[in-house]
Amino acid sequence: MASNTIQFLFSDKIYKIKNPDPNKTILNYIRNDLKMTGTKEGCAEGGCGACTIVLGELDKGKIIYKSINACIGFLPTLNGKQLILIEDLIHKNKPHVVQEAMVKFHGSQCGFCTPGFTMSLFSMHKNKKLINKEIVEEALSGNLCRCTGYRPIIDAAKSLNNKKDQDHFKKKENKTIRLLRKIKDIDIEINYQGKKYFAPKTITNLKKILKTNPNAKILSGGTDLSLEVTKFRKDINTIVSLNSINKLNFIKKSNTLLEIGATTSLFDFQNLIKKYFVDFYDVLKRYGSLQIRNVGTIAGNIATASPIGDALPLLLSLDAKIVIQGINQKKIYSLNKFFISYRKTKLKKGEFIYSIKIPLNKENIFKAYKISKRFDDDISSVCGSFNFLIKKNKITKAAIAYGGMSEIPKRASIIEKNLVNSEFSENTFNRAVSLINKDFSPLDDMRASRNYRLAIAKNLLLKAFYEIKYKKNIRLHT
């Protein structure tokens, strides 16, 4: 049984919307329907943080608070969640402790970005009791300010360290949990003026939907798909969301393999991968922002096939495989064979990504670097990833991949062949970098010129060599 009505919790009440427009963003609903105008629109692409709101979600009987970009979230994705806006922070005419901190440390001038910053700090405060520099930087990485300057905002964030969570949300936590549990956990099927939205709870129902709607756009996170509406002004006629299928949200670990489910968030994945590949973690910490990583998924990053998708060259160099689920069977592809051309993959109609498999080899040495104009919340100019197996000073395996160097994320096959069975030496790598032009012919665009990309790609390979040889990290200024 499916429902055409989404339900979510707002201001201690369960809101019900029958057949909402699947293309309406959460931000437009907040501002135009709820008439709550504290939440702002800046970029309409999840890059500035002015639209930041917080969602409360039940996880093992507890409420987890996640900051997200309302400008790129579709309204039906609110189903089953608690919606928290900047207006909700004030209680009985008294500002929240986070708002008090922003006032005390003069964290606002023009005020346009202030609600978004405040909501990011609110989420941080709810999730973290002890706050350090890294936590503050991650919480604020998706919020841009053009007049206040970040120092007073960071000071406000630091002042929240070890502050007890005794706000009105905490006091009403049990009531909130009871209300969230009242929302029926069933499939959603919406039809609004011919535009359809499906959010099945099971893989079986997902297959049925994809069989009858082969041209549907699959939503797994949705931080990229929504731009078709907000930036290109298009309508998406049919959306099938995977985000409600619990069996696609998993992490399986063994001594030799990690398997990541299609709907596992980038944030959850980043906290897992740190144990195995520190450089992967470091790159993911710069993937968009916390708001993006709370929603986005590795599977979504793969399916969009962006040539500058940050996770893709890293997964390529790690020899990752993806499990594709069709109507009748599963297939496994090497990621290296999955990308066909610009934004095109071997994924066929009626198929979806089930999981990603990442081999683990403790003997391998893994390095990865992202080069962008801004350190946080920016798209790569070039992303390089390197995976070596070195025995007795001989390179027995070399897997090298780049993003931003081709129309697809791509392995440097010519360089790899040149390195394998060669001595691990400066001469070997100087010879290898001279072959970069044979593997790649990058374009000029607004992020970087062709010559810059080629030079950076060479330098990143040499950087990997020197870091491995001297067993220390070499800092790059980006």
What is the topological layout?
Layout: E1 2-3, E2 5-10, E3 13-18, H1 26-33, E4 52-59, E5 62-69, E6 82-84, H2 97-104, H3 114-127, H4 133-140, H5 150-158, H6 168-171, H7 173-182, E7 187-192, E8 195-199, H8 203-212, E9 217-219, H9 227-230, E10 238-241, E11 251-253, E12 257-261, H10 266-273, H11 278-284, H12 290-293, H13 298-304, H14 311-317, E13 321-325, E14 330-334, E15 339-341, E16 344-345, E17 352-359, E18 365-371, E19 382-391, E20 394-403, E21 410-411, H15 413-419, H16 426-433, H17 436-439, H18 450-470
Parallel strand pairs: 1-7, 2-6, 8-10, 9-10
Antiparallel strand pairs: 2-3, 4-5, 4-6, 7-8, 11-12, 12-17, 13-14, 13-17, 15-16, 18-19, 19-20, 20-21
Overview of this structure, please?
With 478 residues, the protein is α+β, with helices and mostly antiparallel strands. It has 3 domains: 2-87 and 173-241, Roll (Ubiquitin-like (UB roll)); 92-166, DNA polymerase, domain 1; 365-470, Enolase-like, domain 1. It has 18 helices and 21 strands. It has helices at residues 26-33, 97-104, 114-127, 133-140, 150-158, 168-171, 173-182, 203-212, 227-230, 266-273, 278-284, 290-293, 298-304, 311-317, 413-419, 426-433, 436-439, 450-470; strands spanning 2-3, 5-10, 13-18, 52-59, 62-69, 82-84, 187-192, 195-199, 217-219, 238-241, 251-253, 257-261, 321-325, 330-334, 339-341, 344-345, 352-359, 365-371, 382-391, 394-403, 410-411. The strands form 5 sheets. Strands 1-7-8-10-9 form a 5-stranded mixed beta sheet, with helices on one face. Strands 3-2-6-4-5 form a 5-stranded mixed beta sheet. Strands 11-12-17-13-14 form a 5-stranded antiparallel beta sheet, with helices on one face. Helix 2 (97-104) packs across helix 5, helix 10 (266-273) packs antiparallel against helix 11 and helix 16 (426-433) runs antiparallel to helix 18 (450-470). It starts with a strand and ends in an 8-residue tail after the last helix. The model has no long low-confidence stretch (mean pLDDT 95).
